Amino acid sequence: MSITIDVNGTQHEVEGDPSMPLLYALRDQIGLRGAKFGCGLGQCGACTVIVDGRAVYSCLMPISALEGRAVTTTEGLLEDGEPGKVHRAFIEEQAAQCGYCIAGMVMRAQHLLERNPDPTDDQILDGMQTNLCRCGTHAAIIRAVKRAARS
Amino acid sequence: MTIATKTASETRRTLTRRSLLKGAGGLVVAFSLGAGRVQAQDLPQAGELKSVSLDAVQSYLAIDADGLVTVYSGKIDYGTGVRTGFAQMVAEELYVPLERVTVIEGDTALTPDQGPTYGSLSIEVGGKAIRLAAATAREAMLANAAEQFGAERSALSISDGVISGGGQSISYADLLKGAAFDLDLDEDAALKDPASFTIVGQPIIRDGLPGKITGDFQYMQDFKLEGMVHARVVRPPAISAAINAVDEASISHLKDVQIVRKGAFLAVVAEDEWTAVRAARELAVTWDAADSLPDQAELWEHVRQTPIVKDEMTSDIGDVDAAPSAREITATYDFALHTHGSIGPSCAVADFTDGKLISWSSSQATHRLRRQLSDMFGIPDDDIRCIYIEGAGCYGRNGHEDAAADAALLAREVGRPVRVQWMRHDEHGWDPKGPPTLIDMTARFDDAGDVSAWDTEFFIPQGGGGRVALLGADLADLPTTSELNPGGITNDSAIPYGFPNVRTVCHRLETTPLRPSWIRAPGRMQNTFANECFIDEIAAELGADPMEYRRGLIDQSDARGLEVLDRLRDFSEWEARPSPSSGQEGARLAGRGMAYVKYELKRTYVGVVAEVTLDAHSGAIKVDRFHVVHDCGQIINPAGVRAQIEGNVIQTTSRTLMEELTFDRRMVTSLDWASYPIMRFKDVPEVRIELIDRPNDPPWGAGEPTAVVVSAAISNAVFDAVGARLRSVPFKPEKLRAALSEARG
Amino acid sequence: MTHRRLWFSGFAVLLILIAIAFAIVWRPAIDEIREGSAPQVDAAQIARGYELAQLGNCESCHTAENGAAYAGGRKMETPFGAIYAVNITPDRAHGIGAWGPDAFARSMRDGVSRDGTHLYPAFPYTHFTKLTDSDMSALYAYLRSVPAVAESAPENELPFPFNIRALMAGWNLLFLDKDQITPVQGEDDDWNRGRYLVEGLAHCGACHTPRNAVGAEKSAAFLAGAEINGWYAPPLAGAEAGPWNTEQMEAYLANGFSRAHGAAAGPMGETVGNLAQAPRADITAMATYVASLTEGAAEELAAIDNGVPEDMDAAHTLWTGACADCHRNPVRDQGGALNPSYGVPLSTGAAVRSSKPINTLRTIAGGIDAYRDVGGPYMPAFEDSLTSAQIADLARYVRARFSDQAPWEDLQERAQDILGQVDPDENREGDAQ
Ligand code: FES
Ligand code: FES
Questions:
Q1: With a 6 A CB cut-off, is A57 part of the ligand 1 pocket?
Q2: Closest-CA residue in chain C for B740?
Q3: Cα C61 to middle of ligand 1, angstroms
Q4: What ipTM describes this predicted complex?
Q5: Residue extents of the structural domains in chain C
Q6: CA B258, CA B241: separation in Å to the nearest integer?
Q7: Per the database record, which ranges form the 2Fe-2S ferredoxin-type domain (chain A) (predicted)?
Q8: What is the per-residue pLDDT across C65-76, written as a single tens digit (0 to 9) for each?
Q9: A132 within ligand 2 shell (Cβ under 6 A)
Q10: Residues C386 and C394: beta-carbon distance below 8 Å
């Protein structure tokens, strides 16, 4: 079965089992590696992407549910191949240790800022709360989200 | 003096960037991501391309015909920034811009065996050798240029990789013409004066960081080979289990799935990843499973009862038994089993062709892994090449080596390159764990009320920081080592405090419930927790200010230790008084507590103050703030050091407050993030850091040393707030409630 | 009788009626206590009060989302309009700082505020009226110890005539039963203690008992299950309930999870979060009493898997990609390690067996998040990734596959209600059918 998915503004034909979660389509077929496999259970957020303006766990998003919907990954936030606003804020704050959680964090932050361009500290904590980081990069991530909101 | 004996065309032992690219397929990985099909039998083995011996400069360093510098490091980077640190050190010693330096890590064919990456020793030990190699090379090139110029060595200067003097100049590239260094490491090579450093000491953005954020960075989990198939391992429902029956028909609806079965090792292999995931999930298997674990409810009894194979005395000062004992206090501390909890489960790719194996993994000990794979498959070391690719962070040894073994076994069985990605339950369930630690403490006081003896016993597994049995080999009944390997967990059992009689005994236990492994500051964390809490108990017993009390007990000639404590007092605005605090009302209580370590009694100094607020009704503890004063000698990259400190505090706060692995009689039951929660954004403490930089001293490890003081500082702060002592990690609310009702009597 | 006398008599009767009505309606204000004059209480009493407050779930209702504890502001939708919980912190101006113990006790027992105005029974004083004096004092002591917050709750949104508080006097006359709970001979201490808590402080009936047209709990249908705040509080008593045994109920109340019944979600998830702080003995007592109300043997239900239902390929595809990794094939789960969020056989879950679909729909949409940091059950929310039609489809699928109950009606409409929106893209909804 083949399904057409709009990823970062480009239409992609995805082949395979329609139950296949978007995560595997992105990583194995479309060739993007920003979204990560962390748990496959909707618990960690490493796979977070934006679908039609909402942050979702791509590990639990069957491609059958995606026909005609628009997907954005961290690669889609690049501006002319250069880091976008949220990217830049994370880079300037050096907000990554191993970095495995970070592409998901970037998407969560992007989603938060799209809905609320001027979040309070509590709103940032609340907005980022779903995503896990094991390296303890949280403080740097929060600084990055604040920086992105300010810029 | 000859620094480069032969040119590239003359010998394989020389190295150019081109030959690297052409000849060494594996290296393509390091340069251009997402390499094409690589044949294992084409791959050069250790020593074929270049030396990997520990004393040759070329083992660590090459400069190609374009002047690009390649560093070969046996120590690897998990995002901690050591790769960047090495590049900084080499760029500094060679007077070249940082951009011109590339680091290759953990490739058994190319990098020297500098031992596994652990103990925050990468910069301290690994970096030292690399820096020496660069200095040796530079000095040799200078001497060589002086000879060519007919000038005095002292008249030469270097800028941007170009040596000038006496009106002449020559670049490294032109001097070497792509040849390899044929030099031994000179232990006495002149090192650049730190006062003139321009790269070391700068807060350089860590290598790879921007790509991690934009999605461009290639992790192990992203690595692909052409023709590769995807595998998932189907683990048994018990540590001790045998396959009873596999119902192949249960997955007949899935396309082209191969079931691989060897002993109790069971896996599915498919062309695409999702099919493999489904096959592993849907395959109906029945197992004969047996109980092999103790009852977790009786864990500490079990630990106490485990046979002791030997006692190691880590300090024995005076005579504890003969010390005056007008009275004594005793306490027992324990520290739960923890899991690494890497956010990305372990992953490996292997190609096993014509009896030769190439293994890509995130192993932090590729040289050791090679020996283990050699045992497992009964093939010589030389037929195996292990290549490191950075993966998701782990904090010691998690499942990388096991995934590498799984992949190798499967590649051999199916005759194609295989990628094995562990699922979340594989990682939480099967990676080796931080062992449960039990510590008995006794302090005796003389008639004058002074401490006469410090007498402590640590119940910890036997073994060192060596190899851990490979899961796949174990299940498949292939040879593998079966030693316990908890790491150097006797470290920091001895104390930096000068009591007249001190005895610290480590009872090394025959077994431990789950495969042990080093997880971030193994042993040191548990031992320091007990020591730094107990010293606080003594201070409270004596009505002394905990900071002042410690300060008076450390070696008064240890100026660095004294400075850390003094700066900590000022930095944290410490109010000198005994704990617990008095006069607080209501259920919300605030406290502050400190802890101090001189890491392994010989390196990095850290002092911390934790500030907590707690709810005496619910028992919930919120860590509001940490103040950290940190002396790791020379600081290579302050941004990296700060990030390490911050990360270590936050992660260890999580471990201290909430983490506890659970198991039943058969296996681990905390198989996901819901059953093994870790700290999330709202609970993260603020971390305030003061770095002490000592540019003229050797650089010591940063990272783990901060982790070890976190649990004690929190416990001491809780005691300060409510007068109840938490001696059992994690400090879950019910434990504080219990401690409170005990304290109230 | 002259005309005039008749008139007088009529007037007198009217006056008497007014007086009676007034007597019924009117409650005197109780004087404010002077600043700093609250009775001295000891720490043990506060600690006991804290435990009682957990059993009474006070904080959940009296705290707005992300708001300060007990500062009120949480909105409660009732059939009569929206009511906001008030600030019960010891702030004198905005909370109950000026209330003495008698004013507090009167509000709890009679539903009358310190100033004499009537409260609405969204505040379950019909249950709290059963509290013993000592429990009342401990609760008062505890509430005086929480941090004062200077914030007022928003005004209630009640249309006429429900905005006339005096009407509640009549309501109370009809529905407020102030009899104390007396121990039942022949039942053990746990059972009696459990009954006291369940019918009193824990006010289980406030959610689990259906209400009549004027919002009073139907005493004849005690704990028979009711829809409230968009969830279905399932029956705890009678033939439709359970079956529960004490151990299952205790595990459920203490940890939010019983393998035989599933996880506590929605408002019950919050309640469990509070109960977890209460003394275990009280939980055991409540479990003992509640389990005694169900009929039949409380055996574990056998797991049901009817296989993939016909004509539900699209839903099966969703299930396979989005659900199956957690709710795996029970065959595999038997041998292996068990934990609440991993490998739950759905067929034993109360939500899937329930006569009403809303808990299943809500759980798919909103997930289960209450225990995220304490190691309890967890489920991610799908409201941001799936459409209401897809969620309805999944509900239909799990009902058909994992229960022996009749299909649910109106799934699509209810799912749309729950997502609070009509999907902009109708085609997309069509595709998922
Ligand atoms: S991988 Fe999707 S939430 Fe963890
Ligand atoms: S940076 Fe490693 S998991 Fe977040």
A1: yes
A2: C47
A3: 33
A4: 0.91
A5: 17-30+40-175, 189-292, 313-419
A6: 22
A7: 1-77
A8: 889 999 999 998
A9: no
A10: yes
